[in-house]
């Protein structure tokens, strides 16, 4: 069910979108979906808790494929249109971002697409994909431009861009079994869709660099002790933990909203900075060797075996 079906249809053609919600957002060779059909994002509105629950449900490997990014972008546009139509009086104050893939939040960027674009030397395609990723990240970090609190519900592994997506939210609630990591260093690249900016915001630049260069996997409890994960829940109790958190902040919603506003003012995230970093990422990606790409595709193959999908073609040696 789409956001508009859950609430009401609003598509004011004259409204002005923020930069990250600009029209014409479909990825190359992909038609933008209608808002009545978002096959890769499930939406549920909890009126009582003033919360919009969204769950990623990508087909195939649970990564940020062009189709998933397109649907997430459509939800962002829908929220902005509704805010314009209601003069900011949205029926929700919080957005939860979760996943319907058992044991996996998100495995990150579309590595098969990366390898293809790199082998083709397609700078424009890589840059376009990367910009769409950070547009989604920025919307979370910026409260969708309407002062909303974003909550990542991590009920499984969050790797690469999946970890970055969780970090982009104001609050991270993770089930105890969830694992987090930035594996890009294993194939001689770095996570370019916000990791350094977002980790620096929660920790400091030195720790952000250490985490990125380590390629290490972390448990939810380890990240909780570091101050990255806010709430650790028992396995299977993530949604209940989010509901408990929402109930607590609901008793002091005015103060909570004000603090979120102050946090964004004191430690802002720049949309342009995120896009500029992706340009550095594109330059680095295009310098990868065939040996690096083989390592990347070995990771893709491991992910495919995990979810039993066809393996991609190997890079010619």
From TrEMBL:
The residue ranges flagged as biased composition, category Polar residues, are 1-18
Superkingdom of this protein's organism: Bacteria
The UniProt entry, under SUPFAM superfamilies, shows:
ClpP/crotonase
What molecular functions are annotated in GO for this chain? catalytic activity
Where does the chain cross the membrane?
none
Q: A GO BP term, please?
A: fatty acid beta-oxidation
Alphabetical list of Pfam families matching this protein: ECH_1
> Which residue intervals make up region (Disordered)?
1-32
Family affiliation: Belongs to the enoyl-CoA hydratase/isomerase family.
What name goes with this protein?
Crotonase/enoyl-CoA hydratase family protein
UniProt source species: Gluconacetobacter liquefaciens
């Amino acid at each position: 069910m789409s956001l508009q079906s859950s609430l009401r249809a609003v598509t004011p053609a004259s409204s002005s979108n923020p930069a990250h919600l600009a029209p014409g957002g479909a990825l190359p060779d992909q038609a933008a979906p209608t808002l009545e059909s978002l096959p890769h994002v499930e939406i549920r509105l909890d009126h009582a808790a003033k919360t919009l629950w969204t769950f990623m449900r990508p087909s195939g490997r649970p990564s940020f494929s062009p189709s998933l990014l397109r649907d997430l972008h459509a939800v962002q546009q829908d929220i902005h249109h509704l805010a314009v139509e209601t003069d900011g009086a949205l029926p929700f104050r919080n957005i939860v971002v979760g996943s319907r893939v058992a044991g996996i939040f998100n495995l990150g960027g579309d590595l098969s697409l990366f390898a293809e674009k790199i082998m083709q030397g397609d700078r424009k395609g890589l840059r376009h994909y990367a910009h769409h990723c950070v547009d989604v990240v920025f919307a979370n970090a910026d409260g969708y431009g309407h002062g909303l609190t974003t909550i990542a519900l991590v009920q499984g592994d969050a790797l690469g861009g999946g970890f970055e997506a969780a970090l982009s939210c104001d609050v991270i609630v993770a089930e105890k079994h969830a694992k987090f990591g930035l594996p890009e260093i294993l194939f001689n690249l770095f996570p370019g869709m916000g990791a350094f900016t977002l980790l620096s915001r929660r920790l400091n630049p030195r720790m952000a660099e250490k985490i990125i260069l380590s390629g290490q996997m972390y448990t939810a409890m380890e990240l909780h002790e570091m101050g990255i994960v806010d709430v650790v829940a028992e396995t299977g109790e993530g949604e209940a933990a989010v509901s408990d958190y929402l109930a607590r902040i609901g008793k002091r919603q005015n103060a909570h909203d004000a603090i979120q506003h102050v946090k964004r003012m004191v430690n802002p995230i720049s949309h342009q900075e995120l896009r500029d970093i992706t340009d550095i990422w594109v330059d680095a990606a295009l310098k990868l060797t065939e040996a690096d790409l083989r390592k990347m595709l070995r990771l893709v193959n491991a992910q495919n075996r995990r979810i039993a999908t066809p393996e991609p073609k190997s890079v010619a040696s």
